[in-house]
Design a protein that fits this description.
Elements: H1 10-36, H2 38-83, H3 88-113, H4 118-135, H5 137-152, E1 160-163, E2 166-173, E3 177-181, E4 187-191, H6 192-196, E5 200-202, E6 208-217, H7 223-236, E7 252-258, E8 263-272, H8 276-293
Antiparallel strand pairs: 1-2, 1-5, 2-3, 3-4, 6-8, 7-8
Helix pairs in contact: 1-2, 2-3, 7-8
Length: 308
Amino acid sequence: MMILQTNPFTPASDDITSKVDSARIAAGDLAQALATNPSEALRQLGVEAIHFGLKVLLAIVIYIIGAWVIKLVKRALKKYFTARNTDQTVASFVTSFTAAALTVLLIVLTVSTLGVNTTSLAALLAGGGVAIGMALSGTLQNFSGGLLILAFKPFKVGDFIEAQGYAGTVAEMSIVSTRINLPDNRSVTIPHGTLANGNINNYTKNPVRRLEWTVNMEYGVDSEACEAKLLEIVRENALVLDGSTPGAADPFAAISNMSDSTVTFVVRGWVRNENYWDVYFSVNDAIYKEMPEAGFKFPFPQLDVHIR
């Protein structure tokens, strides 16, 4: 009795062994037929050759038609995404993924037309897929994170975001990572696996943003007059919006804190995203120049010591 050692691919091995045995038996039968009845053997061999040739011809026709259909599907998807103005990254990924899946299906169908048992082939592909998936687990995590980002669109190319400890402008998005340019012109690539599972602060998602200035004044200052002067400085800037703009509000000023040596005023105003830093620095400059001219003095740290 012979003992066969099994392995994960035993079904495929058994199938190959059985086919080899069948081929040996067929070869023996053919040799015997040629010895006893050559004409009948040649006729049978011709019939088998014609039958196999028809299978090959049918497989070629199926492959050609299938490849043509795949091209039509890719072309239709491109037209659809162009008409819907879909993000280029999403369109490219969906088109490539669909074409690859259809190509694998076409190959399996073509091979099965030749009479090859595709069950063993499917088992081999499944086992190989599991092994590749375990080896590329990190890449697959970035891949799935990219799908989530492309689906929910928390940001797009050109947005200024803060994520994973970096703040910069999104320069490029792929299916596995996002590249952002930092304000000092450094380029940082963030994998989508960590990006999709972390906090994303998008500064340019909304068209209008609120600016805030904190101004320290000395004790004894006229709070109402100081607030009025601060509002006047902010409103003098033509880029500061008022309540008539959707998403904005009128400028606001009030006392926010009283510390040991200073009275802190807060001033708020709304601007468009593209004017944020221009308004911030210009108003800072105006506050520094105009507040002392109006009689409002900036404080300095001081300590009163009483000796008895």
